Backbone:
């Protein structure tokens, strides 16, 4: 007995029509997690409009929805919401701790630090596939100790060049005055907002301890405190002061500057964002949109988007792959970093300099290779270690899924892996979650054979009812990639037989047969479910949380803009800043439900 | 309090090396033996030694009676320390049979906590999604009793421990949902344990005073924020606040006597601690550091987590190419796999032997560090291919000479019927002077483990 996520809440989360459940069906008819029950009954759309956490609305409904959505043990089914004009539903907003990537970027931008101290921090708990999920990012004694170590090292380095930190001259103006100046001006950068008088005086006390030695020591100790303070390590938000009775408020401009910079750059706001925030000029959708457009033109945006791609497409799996040297003589481990680099350049090209669209990501014949990788592909052009743009044969290759790195990553050491190729498409592109095989089954991959094809060896998955329920959702997709061997290279034969690349997609909006990876990629590129899945994945990455029923309108807003922009991926990022969830938050009640 | 005194000369001699290998440790410890002073009682320590994916019971369980028994194939490497073992047979991880998560997850979470998992979003191979363990782990409870005055309340080491962020990845828990991640990089362990050790006293005092000012101000900023937040956020900030306060206490403790007994040894050389084939070398480095940390009394409680639950290391140094977890699913009819899994568990017994031997070389009073260290070798499953939790392969090793309630070692205890392992966890608490009569979920506990 096992969970059938595919057929239940995951499909709802993705905002796609409920899949026919009969397929992967360990547990049909059992209760759903309460938060999604209302959705479920209506095929993905909420039933009765209920105002929750909206101004003038019903706060009790809000807290109930929030607790249930965040995994609480809400007993009765909360009521889902419908979009109504003039009613704001931002969903929950949690304190977000900087993850390692954000910490490194932030100290780089604040202090010109290049040591990447957070690489030594414990890895984040990933949730919903991403390393920035607010509820999953707690602290441990080891991490808190490393914050101390990192702050000490960063501050010691930083005061070697005091001129970068403050322009105040203690010799002429006095150490105390320059201490105050540093606290006020540099503190605002680190805290991403002006400091309160209490904060300034607390920092001044620490500065005074160090200043007994010298000015630089005062600055160093003050900086150590700043770098360990919650105002730096967390994104703390309270929103604008609420009017009487308001339950939802717009973010302050300083809070918005941080939301923008950590969304688009995964780093601290730059001077322009700070200036806009100081002018309180990050309040309207247009003001915010204009900043996003500007920020997307900054090279830092590429790093942030690449970080999304790494996680969405699980590219870290390319860090090491074992392949059988006898079976795949053309494959050598030094190809791995090249495949990784190819994907980085390819995704960069698609989003930033090339066609820009999701369709292109899934179908483009353009890629990047150096001589070694080009020869693995069997294309000519590159003649050195330098990567250059090449165009692959569009009768054999189409888009992301046919890149050697993806196919090798989704291949076993000594054979292809139709199960995981299909699973990847199901989970990463269609946003279904495939349950792992039941633990009480003896799982044995079919033995290698000198005569049978992979398709033949996996027959049991089609014939055994214990397997078929789920595997019919994965294997027929994965078998469509049989033209790519376990090391990601095209092949025409297996065990002397011609390759059969026919496949079938079941239970989706592109249900039906196909022949080969090119046709499948083309079907995926036209799939509404894939588009919604990409938008959903971005939602989770951008907002650092999963969707709740209250986010129905935000998701609608994002998807409508994505569609209007012909599924341009940069426009999707802009769209994520134009929502209730991004521009508003619930009023904080001390000690209360969030 | 008794410390293993290591002379400055020995430590400096070791400091010339590029790695803390055995020769270095040996050199120090030989010197240490000569320098050891017979003083008051040594401290008692507790070490968790975890290996994953179950064992092969027929090759694990000894034969014979409680005091006259023959070690099995898997435990045979430990023969030199047979009188320092208590082999347990028939203890069930009862808490792992209930609640959310799959068998690996429940086994791992309940292993040291004795309680079901929290709700969460980690989807395992079966069952409902689940979060982290639902309670404090027994090592941390013991650390609260005996570890408070040391530089580190406890030390969590990993050897390619993966699955960070999920219940598969952790052995130790400060509280429900608060995992203490094992550190896989020996260089990071070295830095955490031995930073400051051996610095001059005046430099240490100045550093300590500066840190106190800094951490006081940091803690105050968390204290000021907490009451303004909603409940979920407040919980996080409060936890962070507590961890800063505990860090302050640790650092305060570290500034006093430890620096006199231990000089900072050389940092481990560069070694790719993530590379599969470096697994044994990383394990030895971690064990060397662990022994040093205990010998210098920088910590009294530690866990050493080999792989993780569902760990899939390839034991290529034994000529085994398939992953550990991958093989653990094979049917009993596959004799080749059964033998390989047996070999893997024999290898783990050899690592435990190495650890025990290293401890036995550290003199303390009339005995050795091993006499004063109780090691608990545990696993999240009893047998891999059925993912079960009855008759867990549990072993106690070392000694309890300095414990509040010492154990008689050198025994084979066989239990019949369903004896819940929470009883064992209660007994471990009792050994360390905690009077608790129940631990974990009381539904799976009937008091201390009989006959232990």
Residues:
């Amino acid at each position: 007995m096992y969970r059938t996520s595919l057929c239940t809440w995951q499909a709802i989360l993705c905002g796609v029509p409920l899949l026919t459940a009969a397929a992967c069906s360990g547990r049909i008819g059992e209760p759903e997690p309460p938060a999604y029950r209302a959705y479920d009954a209506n095929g993905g759309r909420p039933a009765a409009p209920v105002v929750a956490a909206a101004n003038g609305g019903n706060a009790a409904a809000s807290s109930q929805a929030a607790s249930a959505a965040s995994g609480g043990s809400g007993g009765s089914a909360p009521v889902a919401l419908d979009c109504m004009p003039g009613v704001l539903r931002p969903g929950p907003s949690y304190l977000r701790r900087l993850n390692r990537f954000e910490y490194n970027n932030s100290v780089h931008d604040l202090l010109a630090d290049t040591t990447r101290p957070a690489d030594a921090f414990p890895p984040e708990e990933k949730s919903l596939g991403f390393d920035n999920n607010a509820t999953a990012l707690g602290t441990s004694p080891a991490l808190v100790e490393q914050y101390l170590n990192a702050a000490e090292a960063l501050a010691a380095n930083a005061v070697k060049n005091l001129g970068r930190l403050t322009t105040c001259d203690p010799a002429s103006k006095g150490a105390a005055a320059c201490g105050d100046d540093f606290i006020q001006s540099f503190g605002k950068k680190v805290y991403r907002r002006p400091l309160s008088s209490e904060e300034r005086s607390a920092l001044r006390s620490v500065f005074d301890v160090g200043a007994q030695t010298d000015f630089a020591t005062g600055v160093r100790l003050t900086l150590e405190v700043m770098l360990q303070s919650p105002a730096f390590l967390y994104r703390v938000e309270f929103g604008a002061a609420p009017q009487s009775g308001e339950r939802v408020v717009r973010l302050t401009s300083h809070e918005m500057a941080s939301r923008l910079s950590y969304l688009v750059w995964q780093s601290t706001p730059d001077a322009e964002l700070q200036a806009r925030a100081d002018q309180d000029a990050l309040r309207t959708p247009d003001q915010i949109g204009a900043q996003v457009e500007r920020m997307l033109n900054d090279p830092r945006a590429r790093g942030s988007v690449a970080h999304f791609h790494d996680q969405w497409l699980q590219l870290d799996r390319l860090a090491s792959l074992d392949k059988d040297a006898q079976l795949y003589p053309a494959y050598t481990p030094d190809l791995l970093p090249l495949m990784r680099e190819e994907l980085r350049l390819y995704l960069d090209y698609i989003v930033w300099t090339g066609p820009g669209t999701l369709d292109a990501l899934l179908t483009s014949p353009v890629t990047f290779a150096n001589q070694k990788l080009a020869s693995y592909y069997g294309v000519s052009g590159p003649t050195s270690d330098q990567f250059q743009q090449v165009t692959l044969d569009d009768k054999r290759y189409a888009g992301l899924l046919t890149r050697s790195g993806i196919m090798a990553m989704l291949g076993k050491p000594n054979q292809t892996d139709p199960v995981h190729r299909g699973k990847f498409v199901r989970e990463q592109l269609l946003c279904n979650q495939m349950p792992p095989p039941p633990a009480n089954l003896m799982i044995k991959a079919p033995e290698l054979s000198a005569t049978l094809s992979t398709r033949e060896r996996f027959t049991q998955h089609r014939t055994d009812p214990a397997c078929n329920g789920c595997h019919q959702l994965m294997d027929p997709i994965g078998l469509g990639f049989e033209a790519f061997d376990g090391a990601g290279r095209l092949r025409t034969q297996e065990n002397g037989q011609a390759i059969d690349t026919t496949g079938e997609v079941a239970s989706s909006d592109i249900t039906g047969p196909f022949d080969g990876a090119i046709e499948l990629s083309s079907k995926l590129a036209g799939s509404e479910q894939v588009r919604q899945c990409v938008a959903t994945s971005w939602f989770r990455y951008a907002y650092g949380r999963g969707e709740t029923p209250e986010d129905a309108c935000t998701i609608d807003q994002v998807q409508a803009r994505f569609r209007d922009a012909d599924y341009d991926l940069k426009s999707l990022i802009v769209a994520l800043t134009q929502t209730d969830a991004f521009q508003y938050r619930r009023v904080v009640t001390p000690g209360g439900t969030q | 309090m008794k410390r293993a005194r290591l002379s400055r000369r020995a430590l400096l001699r070791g400091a010339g090396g590029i790695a803390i290998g055995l020769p270095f440790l040996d050199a120090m410890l030989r010197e240490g033996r000569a320098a050891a002073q017979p003083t008051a009682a040594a401290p008692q320590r507790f070490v968790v030694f975890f290996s994953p994916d179950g064992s092969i019971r027929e090759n694990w369980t000894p034969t014979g009676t409680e005091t006259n028994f023959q070690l099995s194939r898997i435990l045979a490497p430990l023969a030199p320390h047979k009188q320092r073992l208590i082999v347990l047979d028939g203890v069930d991880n009862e808490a792992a049979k209930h609640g959310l998560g799959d068998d690996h997850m429940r086994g791992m979470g309940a292993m040291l906590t004795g309680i079901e998992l929290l709700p969460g979003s980690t989807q395992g191979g079966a069952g409902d999604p689940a979060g982290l363990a639902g309670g404090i782990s027994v090592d941390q409870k013991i650390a609260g009793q005996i570890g408070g005055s040391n530089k580190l309340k406890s030390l969590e080491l990993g050897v390619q421990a993966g699955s960070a962020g999920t219940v598969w990845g952790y052995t130790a828990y400060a509280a429900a949902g608060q995992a203490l991640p094992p550190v896989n990089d020996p260089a990071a362990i070295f830095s955490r344990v031995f930073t400051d050790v051996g610095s001059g006293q005046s430099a240490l005092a100045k550093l300590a005073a500066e840190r106190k000012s800094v951490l006081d101000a940091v803690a105050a900023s968390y204290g000021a924020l907490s009451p303004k937040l909603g409940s979920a956020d407040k919980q996080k900030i409060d936890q962070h606040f507590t961890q800063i306060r505990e860090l302050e206490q640790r650092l305060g403790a570290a500034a006093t006597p430890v620096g006199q007994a231990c000089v900072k040894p050389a940092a481990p050389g560069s070694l790719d601690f993530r590379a599969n084939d470096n697994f044994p070398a990383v394990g030895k480095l971690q064990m060397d550091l662990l022994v040093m940390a205990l010998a210098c009394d920088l910590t009294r409680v530690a866990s050493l987590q080999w792989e993780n639950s569902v760990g899939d290391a390839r034991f290529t140094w034994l000529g085994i190419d398939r992953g550990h977890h991958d093989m653990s699913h094979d049917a009993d009819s596959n004799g080749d796999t059964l033998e390989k899994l047996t070999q893997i568990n024999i290898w783990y017994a050899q690592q435990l032997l190495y650890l025990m031997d290293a401890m036995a070389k550290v003199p303390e009073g009339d005995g050795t560090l091993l006499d004063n260290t109780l090691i608990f070798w545990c696993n999240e499953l009893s047998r891999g291919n059925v993912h079960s939790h009855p008759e867990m392969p549990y072993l106690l090793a070392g000694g309890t000479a300095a414990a509040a309630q010492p154990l008689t070692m050198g025994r084979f205890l066989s239990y019949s019927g369903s004896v819940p392992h929470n009883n064992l966890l209660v007994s471990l608490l009792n050994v360390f002077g905690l009077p608790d009569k129940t631990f974990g979920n009381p539904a799976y506990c009937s008091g201390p483990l009989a006959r232990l």
Observations:
- The first strand of chain A starts at residue 96 and ends at 97.
- Confidence is low (pLDDT under 50) at residues 1-23, 25-81 of chain A.
- The beta strands of chain A are 96-97, 234-235, 248-250, 366-369, 388-391, 493-494, 497-498, 502-505, 512-515, 584-586.
- Chain A touches chain B through 67 residues (CB under 8 Å).
